[in-house]
Design a protein that fits this description.
This protein has one domain: Translation factors (Elongation Factor Tu (Ef-tu), domain 3, Beta Barrel). It contains no helices and ten strands. A hairpin with a 2-residue loop joins strand 4 and strand 5. The radius of gyration is 11 Å and the shape is globular. The protein starts with 6 loop residues before the first strand and ends with a strand.
Length: 80
């Protein structure tokens, strides 16, 4: 999903390595996303998403979801 913003990180849980993302576009497990903020850029596949502590495979725009990430992501990072 390069170059199309799909959301923004609103919180990061360090101990469990989960970024909370407010979506502006639909996102699915299997999509590749890129987190960008200032000089930080992290690209990874979406392997796990949750909404209200329930695993999901697709999330529409407007949802706030948890995404398991491979490294720390700062709040306000844009998601592409």
């Amino acid at each position: 999903m390069a170059d199309t913003q799909v959301g923004e990180v609103i919180h990061f849980y360090d101990k469990i390595q989960v970024a909370i993302v407010r979506l502006t576009k639909t996102l699915k497990v299997g999509d590749t996303i890129k987190f960008k903020l200032h000089d930080q850029e992290v690209t990874q596949p979406v392997e796990s998403m949750e909404l209200d502590h329930q695993k999901i495979t697709t999330a529409p725009a407007g949802d706030e979801i948890g995404i398991k990430v491979n490294e720390p992501i700062k709040p306000k990072a844009q998601v592409f």
